Amino acid sequence: MKTLERRHGKEREMPRIPVILSNSEDITLLPGRQNILIQKVLADFCALYTPAGRVLYISHSKVKLVYFDTDALKALGVKIEEHGKMPDVVVHHVEKDWLFLIEAVTSHGPVSPKRRQELKELFAGSKAGIVYVTAFLNRRTMIKYLYDIAWETVAWIAESPTHLIHFNGKRLLGPY
């Protein structure tokens, strides 16, 4: 019986999406649209808009938490108690001292006015400026959520990585 349990309970080898963090740490994400988008955010968005940025948090659609640098967030004045309210990715642009709070949208919503307020409250203690970003795989997905995107946020589309869509506000890209 033990042999049968071991054979059927053995973890399966599955393809995973490799990600290398700015501190050279390697992590992997399970395949799926959400994690493909997160990988594109880390590889493309961060390379273009947060060069030398430090990844502080990555969530995962199945397990919720993949990477969490609590010490770095504490040093920035952020104390997180409830992971369920965290954005999908948090990146610190060290040079500008901005925290990018990124929602990767494949099936759940963007940074809406309600979500923006939740994130504002969650990161209220931050010494760094906050930048709200909604990431999409493609324009078709963005169009589906267009009316829900909050003002004073940025939208990024992975299929056009060198472009941002700015939703009003006094700054083109930066904290509010």
Short summary of the structure?
The chain is an alpha+beta fold and 176 residues long.
Descriptive labels:
27% helix; 5 helices; seven-stranded mixed sheet; 176 residues; alpha+beta
Write up what this structure looks like:
This protein has 176 residues and is an alpha+beta fold. It has a single domain, classed as BsuBI/PstI restriction endonuclease, C-terminal domain (Trna Endonuclease, Chain: A, domain 1, 3-Layer(aba) Sandwich). Helix content is 27%, strand content 28%. The chain contains five helices and nine strands; from the N terminus they run αββαββαββαβαββ. The chain has a seven-stranded mixed beta sheet with strand order 4-3-5-6-7-8-9, sandwiched between helices. The chain has a two-stranded antiparallel ribbon with strand order 1-2. The N and C termini lie far apart (61 Å).
Tell me the name of the CATH homologous superfamily.
Answer: BsuBI/PstI restriction endonuclease, C-terminal domain
Rg of Cα set: 17 Å
Q: What is the CATH domain class?
A: Alpha Beta
Question: Which stretches are poorly predicted, pLDDT < 50 over at least 5 residues?
Answer: 14-18
Write the layout of secondary structure elements.
Blueprint: H1 2-9, E1 17-20, E2 26-29, H2 33-49, E3 54-60, E4 64-68, H3 70-75, E5 89-93, E6 98-105, H4 113-122, E7 129-136, H5 139-145, E8 153-157, E9 164-167
Parallel strand pairs: 6-7, 7-8
Antiparallel strand pairs: 1-2, 3-4, 3-5, 5-6, 8-9
